[in-house]
Amino acid sequence: MIEEHVLVQRALAGDREAFAGLVQAYQGPVYNLAYRMLGSQAEAEEAAQETFVRMYQRLATYDPQQKLSSWVLAIASHYCVDRLRRRRIVSLPLDEVQVDGLTEPTEAPEPCLLAQEKEREIQSLLAELPEAYRLVLVLRYWQDLSYEEMARTLGTSASAVKAKLHRARELMAQHLSRRQEVQPVHGLERRVTRHALP
Amino acid sequence: MRCHDAHEWMSLKLDRRLPADLERELQAHLANCPACAEEWSTWQEIANLFEGAPLAEPPEDLAARVLLRLEARPHWSALLCSLLALLAGLVAISALFLAPWAQACSLALRVILTPGALGAISHAVADVVRPLALAAEAVRIAVRAVVTPKSALAALGYGAVLLAALAGWLRLVVLSPIRARSSAEFE
Fold first, then answer.
1. Is A62 within 8 Å of chain B by CB?
2. Rounded distance, CA A21 to CA A4, Å?
């Protein structure tokens, strides 16, 4: 497999096939980040395309000392946050934000419905958070980044990332508790008896 | 331990960042604080939900679509070349416009100073009209080249402008003195 820095050099020299190799290497992380941030597959695809176009335009400014994954995810993160802010400006009500399921309809109906329900629950929990908190959770759970890697991606400090994760969890727990007071959430049965740490 | 500290440690615990001694302290706090224990239970449920979530599969043709978008973008160097060519064309057109006026002025002076020079007037009018027609043609080509999206065609248009400018210039600067000299010799 050709090394990443070789692909970057070739892409800089105008080799579109080499750039396609970079896109293939990072399309999974970028698409997943966009999907969890924006909540719909159509928007995630558009965001992923835009991220890679911006990556190509800015490739000359990429510092090889930096991890390419952090750099690409930073571009994707900024784009998604901007897009969410624009969406807020046009005042799209939360209920109208489309939440796509990831489960293929070919699966058995019952597990499929349960998975769809869980998926909807995840996306609605994320959608209730401000962009900055949503982003740290997505980077933590779907990109599996450490505090330091998240800090590099977001251009902030590890302690700021730690504080945001803490606050994001508090906010989500508040939303969930409020919602469970109104109606119990399917697939998220509360385990009030388990108090001890695992 | 305050509940706020417990929450901070709970977050660290979920990220596998809590040292063992603090974990023991946290466990002791949770055993005695029902509110924090309730909170911890909720946090764990959310973490389990997120950690068990499937990864989304990107479309298979994502890379191909990105490449298509890159192909459709105007290239900056081509745009810069087009702008430079446009600038050169404008300079050439300006030269074309200025030259006949200078020529016309000098001819008008000659007409004033030379009595009964009808022939000279007709020459002067012809000298002004011909480069103006050339200049108008050059402008037409330049405008057509600018509004055409293909940079290759634009470059062709600018080349034509430059050729027209050169032809006009040669006509004015080189041919006019020769003609003037030959008519003087004839007289």
1. no
2. 9
* Whole-number CA gyration radius for chain B: 41
B7 closest CB neighbour out of A35, A118, A170 = A170
Inter-chain CB proximity A53 and B66 less than 8 Å: yes
pLDDT tens digits along A60-78: 999 988 899 999 999 999 9
Pick A185 or A175 by higher pLDDT: A175
Delimiting residues of CATH 1.10.10.10 domain(s) in chain A:
129-183
Q: What is the pLDDT of residues A1-32, one digit of tens each?
A: 568 889 999 999 989 999 999 999 999 999 99
**Interface predicted TM-score (ipTM) of this complex, two decimals:** 0.77
Chain A interface test: which of B11, B23, B60 (most A C-beta within 10 Å): B11
In terms of residues, how long is chain A?
A: 198
Q: Which residue of A has its CA nearest to B40?
A: A195
Q: In chain B, which residues have their Cβ closer than 8 Å to the Cβ of A164?
A: none
Shortest CB distance from B56 goes to which of A32, A170, A191?
A32
What class is the A129-183 domain?
Answer: mainly alpha
A1-92 to CATH, choices 1.10.1740.10, 3.40.50.10190, 1.10.10.10, 1.10.260.40? 1.10.1740.10
Rounded distance between C-alpha atoms, residue A146 and residue B162, angstroms: 61
The half-sphere exposure of B157 on its side-chain side, counting CA atoms within 13 A, is 26
List average pLDDT for each run of 10 residues in chain B, which is 187 residues long: 89 93 93 93 93 90 93 75 86 78 75 68 81 88 70 73 88 67 54
The shortest C-alpha distance from B56 to chain A (Å) reads 6
* DSSP states of B76-138: HHHHHHHHHHHHHHHHHHHHHHHHHHHHHHHHHHHHHHSTT-HHHHHHHHHHHHHHHHHHHHH
Report the residue from B7, B26, B62 with minimal CB separation from A197: B26
pLDDT for A197 equals: 42
| Alpha-carbon distance A91 to nearest alpha carbon in chain B (angstroms) | 27
CB nearest to B42's CB, from A32, A56, A177: A177
